[in-house]
């Protein structure tokens, strides 16, 4: 390591290659990334995506990454084993398995590319969320105490939620299934593709806005990335349209400071039991 | 086999267990499922999902399934190798690898459950598409000849597209990025969860409606299933909001005849080059 100061996120996804086993990496899941009973699923996806970045070399950026969550992870050591399935011209595809003490936590399949060289054409009909400026939004210091106590990772975020979508914090969920706000890391680290994997799972569960305040464990999370994000604030929208069959989908859009829709994600999560 | 008549779809996803290798199945990819240069990606996903259904036993239905497409498949024999990662109370998760002549075509991770026993609560804010009745929609017999010639599978579909979203067939794409219509199988086989995996990839690429008539190979396709579909016509909506970075997302919603949103899918596909 030659860098004198590294951000909490870079430390959180840091990997050490195994001296004898190709494709194997060791990680240390920090207690500061906990949420509810485990380590944040977006951080785990970034750890796995990072391992595949290292494997693929000329294709460092996740373009599409899918993770299936098998068991709750805990702070402490973790092992990531990767397998390269295909090395293509524009995309390379591989799998990553993150485990702790021999128990698999997360299985990932992903295609990586180089977002620095992508086609410039953009035909986006989606529009960025209309948000009050960050200083008129709601910081996590106003979040319910029970939420903060269960979410160590909130201290690492500078998260400012749109007042129009935080009625749930005052016992008045809108029922629309939408939470949106501004996001940046508290230590000032600028966004990059791996950070977007964390951001896709960084807001409170959108079911809070449906009046379901409980825990919503992720079954599956897929993130698609379209561009390297510009420095500065990100805008994030979480929404759901279909709570049914005991599960709900949570869609996230991440917009960068240049007004580009840089990432789209969808996860399937288990619906909290009604209070 | 005791059933005298099997549908084309059931034949298309039929599997034979390997006598000596646990978790291995043999399939025969039918020429009738071709589209463009290969076998339809939804059919391949259904073959892989079927293999995992057989492995999981008490969890026969895909609830979330993600496929990464590695190379174009061709009609003929294929081998599916499965691995069970976790057997849980409500969901079981596994991987499936579909290959031909030792070349991997598709890698899948999926969580299966039993959609016959799911929680009855439904909070769906999504609304079904408003479509003219099937007999006022556009059958594939009106599709451009070049399209039909490249899409043998269209003969197996009874697909009726909303006239409002087929301007592209007359050289007048709307630019909205939306194609919708009615779907059922031509031979009358009723829908079930495995068929929904095909349906999620059954309509023409939504980029046709953006004025991009070319081939749009799938990178990744994830389907979430929420209920067993009722018999009868399905309504399908394909849409996209973000063509950027050389790729576009294609979201599909599948509604059953009882008005339930039974499946949601998203795929990332390579954007066709502008004509």
Q: Would you tell me which CATH topology of chain A applies?
A: Porin
Oligomerization status of the protein chains: homodimer
Distance between the termini of chain A: 49 Å
CATH-defined superfamily of chain A: Acyl-CoA thioesterase, double hotdog domain
Order of helices and strands of chain A: HEEEEHEEEEEEHEEHEEEEE
Report the top-level CATH class of chain A. Answer: Mainly Beta
How many strand elements of chain A?
17
User: Strand share of the residues of chain A?
Assistant: 35-45%
Overall pLDDT score of chain A: 93
At CATH level 2, the architecture of chain A is Beta Barrel
Radius of gyration of chain A: 18 Å
Structurally, the number of domains of chain A stands at 1
Pfam families (chains A, B): 4HBT_3, 4HBT_3C
Domain Acyl-CoA thioesterase-like N-terminal HotDog (chains A, B): 32-112
Domain Acyl-CoA thioesterase-like C-terminal (chains A, B): 135-269
Protein name (chains A, B): TesB-like acyl-CoA thioesterase 3
